[in-house]
Amino acid sequence: MNATSLDQLLRAQTGIWRGLHSQNQNWRTIASGFAELDALLPGGGWPLGGVLEILSPLGIGELSLLLPAMASLSQSKRWIAWIAPPQQVYAPALLQAGIDASYVLVADCRQEADIPWSLEKLLRSGRCGMALAWPRRLSDHQIRRLQLAAEAGSALAVLFPKQRSGSGYTALRLEVRPAKTGLALHILKARGSLQRASLTLAL
Amino acid sequence: MAATARALSPTPQKPAALGVKPNAADKQLWLCAYFPDLTLTALHLDLGQAVASAMPYKGQTRLHTVSAPARQAGVESGMTPAAALALCPGVSIHNRDPFAERQVLQQLAEIALDFSPWVSLDQPDCLLLEIRSCLTLFGGIERLQDKLRTAWQTTRHRPLIAISPTPTASNLLARLSLETTITAPQALCSALGPLPIAALALDDRLLHRLLRTGIRQLTDLWRLPRDGLAKRYGAGLLQQLDRLAGQQTQILQAFHSPPCFQASREMPIELERIEHFFPAIEQLAGEFAAFLKTRDATTLGITLELQHHGRPATCLALDFRAGNRDPKHWCGLLSEKLERSPLPAPVLAIGLLSAAIVPFQPERFSLFHDHEKPDSNAEWQAVLDQLQARLGHKALKFPGTQADHRPERAMIDQPNWLTANPDLAPRPLWLLANPEPVRLNGLSLLSSAERIESGWWDDQPIRRDYHSAQDQRGRKLWVYRDLNARHQWFLHGLFG
């Protein structure tokens, strides 16, 4: 039995965890649009069907990490939902990023409790490709619910929590800091990989 | 046998006791109710005061209707507002609101539907009722007219009523404030004869040509040979005359009051728990869905009324983004609303009403069903309905762009998308609703100035130099220097 067929055999067994080798994941991903980042992410991109948590101050360029994925999702006719954004989402900038903005939805939530509820409804619908939210803080079980909803709708939930939470249920957690030549990224947690990587992206 | 045949004949004999002798029973009789002050009363103006309505006419604002006190001061329709104010300084002038006028007419037409099945809104500012068919029921023209006036008494709108065998003639008479009744078609021409030709809807040039040839009254026109009249003055004039005299049949559109649904259920006892009275709501929803289905219609919104003892009823309103007739969807939304809003008191009765009923539009499928799932759009609309029901009516926004150089005006809340301008400098993802004053020290400017100077034609001109900048915390900012406000710097956006 040569190495490739062994590899195929192992890959067919979803119950076997293969440590650092991230090929054993079976969820869909979408390319982030940054080759260096894709190389570090399990499956080669953002997980479609998972919660992505980004810890970052507002306005340093954290959204530009997501713009290429938003553009390709919207062009495949999946909606991009912005839930309770901290400022006005400026449509001309979305247009410049190549997003087919007839698939952009902004929802204002007056109450904090409406945010996870709206996220879950949108993620589960299957028509929504990415839902972004800025909650103050979400509890573990809320993140778990969002994770399940995202899996059901094979959508990407992106959370920008104002307070750090230690939930084990997120598929991916990133910390983003401004750097001299762009953005410094730390992958704090990635489902399907034990790697903790850092890189600097020039934007 | 002959007696039975007469009793069953479709045109029953009119009782001879009626004051007006009805002529040929197969002809129509039209009542025109003209509302001379409609433009004022539709704006809820007090006719006892000096008020006037104005509308644009040939690029100028001209008065349209004038109330009696203003008329006494010398103000007339057709004047400019400045002239009116010079004559009567206290006159208050308001712009016409055609939408409100139309709504008032529809309200009045609904009342008129109690008197005649054929009510028409085809002519401006007036209602036309065919009354020949219902004279017997109301006991003659006089009584019908009185009852109609009484029914309209509750509204603030006073009509001028004229009756004649043709709708055009009734309209003409009412507009000239001649409240006459002409029942016989033969009497029509002689009754209309002395009227001035200016009353016809003719354009000014044609009117002047006719007046120059010495034609003053309608009789003068009727005396002329038809072919020559048509040759000289066009077929339009002849057509108007024929309509007046009833020689040309005119079919008016009938007004139908918009459909609405209303049903209710009394509870056997006062119920507090949702699961106890919710089955009644489901029944009502099912009834409404069946109502819609038989009419091939959908609804844009429903209202649920929960009656309590000795308290005002609780109303829950749902608005749908698209026409909907799925009772399960309504019940889902309603139960969610009910669970989230505690009821002030036990429920005595439940009512379901809806006035927003629109024709059903089937979803369009592509012929080959290539990409989209057949029901995906309806499902998505249902999700949006759920969000809207919980978050509020205006919570969902679909941002769009419009062609304007001013950054705050380049974005609108309607899904209207232009193509991106490739020459435009990068725009920030976050735009601050109100620009914040900012100090320049500590910021490093990353780009040269982009001058935006626009909007001198409306009241919000701007003159700004935009830069992208970075602050000490590493945030990328979009700042501008306001050249109109002593070169002060403002923060307008964040590059997210």
Automatic annotation (TrEMBL), chain A:
- One Pfam entry for this protein is SulA
Source organism, top-level taxon: Bacteria
According to UniProt, the name of this protein is Translesion DNA synthesis-associated protein ImuA
Tell me what organism the protein belongs to.
Answer: Methylomonas fluvii
From TrEMBL, chain B:
Which SUPFAM superfamilies does the UniProt entry name for this protein?
DNA/RNA polymerases (SSF56672)
Q: Which Pfam families match?
A: IMS
Limits of the UmuC domain: 60-173
- Would the keyword DNA damage be found if you checked this record's keyword annotation? yes
Q: What's the domain of life for this entry? A: Bacteria
The record's annotation in CDD domains points to: PolY_like (cd03468)
User: Which InterPro entries does the annotation name?
Assistant: DNA/RNA_pol_sf, Rev_trsase/Diguanyl_cyclase, SulA_CellDiv_inhibitor, UmuC
Q: Which UniProt keywords apply?
A: DNA damage
Q: Please give the family membership noted in the entry.
A: Belongs to the DNA polymerase type-Y family.
Report the protein name in the record.
Answer: DNA polymerase Y family protein
Q: Which organism is it from?
A: Methylomonas fluvii
